[in-house]
Amino acid sequence: MYIKINMDIEVEFDGEYPNVCHGKLRVIENGIVIYETKKYVFESTGSAKVTKKCKSIIKQGVLEWCDDDEYNRFLNFVNNHPDKERILAKVKLVMESVKVCCGGCI
Question: The pTM is what?
Answer without folding.
Answer: 0.80
